[in-house]
Predict the 3D structure of the following.
Amino acid sequence: MRLTCKHVGLFLGIIATGHVHAQSGSGASALEEIVVTASKRGGQLIQDIPITVQAISGDRLQETGALDFNDYFRQIPNLSVNDQGPGHKTYIIRGISSSGAGTVGLYFDETIVTGEFLSSEGGRQPDIKLFDMNRIEVLKGPQGTTFGSSSLSGTIRWIPNYPNLSEFEAEVGGTLSSTKNADFPSWAADAMVNVPLVQDRFAMRIAATAINKEGYIDTRFADGVNNDESQAVRAMFGFQATDNLLLSLMAMSQHSQTDGRSGHMDLLIDLPASPSLNGGPAPSDHWNNALSAEPFDDEMDLFNLKGEYSADWGTITATTSILDRETKYSRDSSTEIEIITGYTRPADGIGQSSIIQPQDRKLTSGELRFASNWDGAFQVLVGAFTQKEERDFQSAIFTVDPTTGKVSSSSATVLDRRVYTEIDEKAMFGELTWQATDRLAFTGGVRWFDFDLNEQATAVTGFPGRPGAGPGRPLAFGESDSIYKFNVAYDFTDDMLGYATFSQGFRAGGTNDQTAAAIAGILIPPGFGSDSVDNYEIGFKSTLMDRRLVFNAAAFYMDWTDIQVTQRAIAPSGLQFAYRGNGGAAVAKGLEFELTAYPTDALQLGATFGYTDGELTENLPVLRDGLDGDTLPYVPEYSVSLNGRYEFPFLTSKGGTGFVSGDLMFQGDQSSRLRPNDPTYREIDSYSLVNLRIGVETDSGWLAIAGIDNVLDEDETTAYTFNGNSQPNVGFVPPGEVRPWPRTLFVSLRRSF
């Protein structure tokens, strides 16, 4: 759907109403800038950092009712997503995304949470649930010198509220919501308590949330399968050991579960060997054809210990973190089995089956860094980093009970392989800043990295159920290199900053599972190398009109080489096997801006705009996979967001203030794959979303909000899900179509103490 007059009119009508009333306000509204730690140089005002970074405050997340990534990403220009459901997202910044690990570095405070999954393009990224948050930071462009591997196109950081050493704090909140075509009610609840155990020295902060979001997709086995049931708890401790030394400890656990995938189908499956699969229209607009149950379970534990020693000459930070994530992904494989066995195993008969892919991933990392605060013209940031990763991965196909769609005691094993991986990485990094004049500064940065990967794959059961070949040949891969950064910043005035940046990012290479390919009688390369991005960027940040107006803009040109791509080997039987390789090159260029205005004390208006032109500049190794000039997938050419918030007197005897707010978000046309001849290629039309809020907050700590998400019930397809790439010679297997979450009405009530 295009950005129509109806969308803009609805949004502007509300804001115009607020604007008329707001004229009675007096005085200038002071901009409340967000303090960020994106540069690893301590807290800095976001307008003072000469890089492209956007931040969303915890207050804004709370007011909009944001629970996860889908609730806020459209507010950030040139940030997009390939959404396959909870815990199965690919985050994309400025058009850079392909098979392999994530291209966007993800951090929960100091803890690395970037996803890695052997069978997923772009990594199976976690869905961090939002509760008791201070802010979210989105850093644009490669951040490799400071954040390392997988920060190829940018970095996202979730920053929680830290323990308050001086004051008791508590908060409790709850939300009830109703979604079109889903059961009522969906609900969410969260609570927080902060207790200074030793005044100004030692404090504890504990927060928790529970989410029960009803789904709207139905299958032959159950209704509302694309639900989200999540629980999370976080405990943080802060200890001011001395006036200079602050120690903190965080432990967090999050468990999310969904009963099915998010895609719906308009048509039923049509396969020649399956007598009950004869095509035709789907029984509803929210139907999924799955012939087996497709639950996804994601359990993640985070631990972090950090020490900060601050003095007049600088800050020394030491941090160590653990990510322990267990996922269990299931998807229907029935139609694939029928097709690749030459229709000898009908999808509604002995071929009815499920692919089960559990993975246990543990990542332990540590970093020691020093950020100077010297009186002279030079400042430094230097650090050392180490990381060890262990992954246990299984991919198995089992027949399922035709009544429940689940694996049972009578299920047969069709295929079973296991992969164990160890990765050791170490790095050193540094930045030197020279303040040449009061207004002109130069910064140079470098990161040296070295990693070694060892992998052992085992074929337990061969296809289609024969004994496996056992352990394969151990595979090893290693790489050592350096990447660089250069930045020049100039303060045109006290309120206008200009900057130019050259930065590099990389994504580590790895091995291919030759054991799995051998099961199908296919020979593939043993590994693939790292890919890299060179980024050229100019931008400016301005705070104007007595801090009533903020206008920031940036233009970028990103050169992506040795792209990690999915390649396919084809067996004589016609069976395709996907593996990772390197090849081709691409360029993503574009611009983005953000505008925030305070016409009066009571009225705030905002707008963002993003433009990305991303395409291959070299053919991929297999020409049918991608040619020079092909547009990069899941990258909208344009993205726009508008937002407004108006405050008015309400319940003044109780110290109350009312507000009404709205936002409109537009995503332009995009595609699901590079080549139109790819079986999974689909064009994705543009779409728009409108959200509205009205609420009241009081001096005594009450906050009540009522709202509507997706007011116009936009239902354009935003992503596609496929069960493999196989299509029958006769018949049709429709893909799943993912749409924006249907119109949802909600009310929430919070109390802070």
